[in-house]
């Protein structure tokens, strides 16, 4: 580099072809890794953890919270609204952030690819299905509907698996492949 050269700014990075944001870079990297693993015959479901990120609703209108459809399988948490949004195996789910056992905030455990309650160690699959622990039912699901490229979560329509099995089972959006 000569004394007359300038140090590139973040605006200059567009010419290099790399993503400007760290989030985009990580998504592109995870998609590339998944593609390489699939080419090698390694199942990505077992090999890769779901990414976790924070999310804010695009719109909050009463009990309706609108979010962009996640672009890949992963867990997004809206701490303000206490909503967990999960895209997993071609579906989008919305859950209450609290464990159904004693209302402790659930955590995503990457190495186990499961949710876990830190208070009594109840564990749940990414679709909210109860695995084991002190809880006696799956994670509480909210109604979710697709509107274009967004999903709308209705926090007034929460389904408890043991009380409303049909509502709980239907509370997700299937995405086209």
Description:
With 177 residues, the protein is an alpha+beta fold. The protein is 16% helix and 33% strand. The chain has helices at 22-39, 44-47, 165-170, and strands spanning 52-54, 59-61, 64-68, 74-78, 83-88, 91-96, 107-109, 114-116, 123-124, 130-132, 141-147, 150-159, 173-174. A five-stranded mixed beta sheet has the order 1-4-5-6-13, with no helix packed on it. Strands 2-3-12-11 form a four-stranded antiparallel beta sheet. The protein is globular, with a radius of gyration of 19 Å. It starts with 21 loop residues before the first helix and ends with a strand.
Number of domains: 2
| Full CATH superfamily name of the largest domain | Rieske [2Fe-2S] iron-sulphur domain
Distance between the termini: 48 Å
- Structure class: alpha+beta
CATH third-tier fold name of the largest domain: Rieske Iron-sulfur Protein
Number of helices, counting only DSSP H or I runs of 4 residues or more: 3
Radius of gyration from the CA trace?
19 Å
What is the architecture of the largest domain at the second tier of CATH? Answer: 3-layer Sandwich
| Number of E-state strands | 13
Mean pLDDT: 79
Helix content: 10-25%
| Beta-strand content bin | 25-35%
Q: Which shape, going by the Cα principal axes?
A: globular
Describe the largest sheet.
Answer: 5 strands, mixed
Order of helices and strands: HHEEEEEEEEEEEEHE
Strand order of the largest sheet: 1-4-5-6-13
């Amino acid at each position: 580099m000569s004394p007359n050269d300038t140090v590139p700014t973040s605006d200059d990075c567009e010419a290099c072809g790399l993503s400007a944001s760290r989030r985009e870079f990580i998504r592109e990297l995870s998609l590339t890794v998944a593609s390489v693993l699939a080419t090698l015959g390694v199942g990505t479901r077992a090999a890769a953890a779901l990414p976790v990120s924070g999310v804010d609703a695009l719109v909050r209108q009463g009990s309706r919270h609108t979010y962009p459809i996640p672009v890949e399988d992963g867990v997004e948490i809206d701490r303000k609204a206490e909503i967990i949004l999960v895209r997993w195996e071609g579906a989008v789910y919305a859950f209450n952030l609290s464990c159904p056992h004693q209302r402790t905030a659930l955590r995503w455990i990457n190495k186990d690819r499961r949710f876990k309650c830190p208070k009594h160690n109840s564990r749940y699959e990414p679709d909210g299905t109860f695995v084991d622990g002190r809880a006696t039912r799956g994670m509480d699901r909210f109604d979710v509907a697709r509107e274009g490229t967004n999903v709308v979560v209705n926090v007034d329509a929460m389904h408890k698996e043991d009380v409303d099995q049909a509502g709980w089972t239907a509370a997700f959006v299937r995405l086209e492949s």
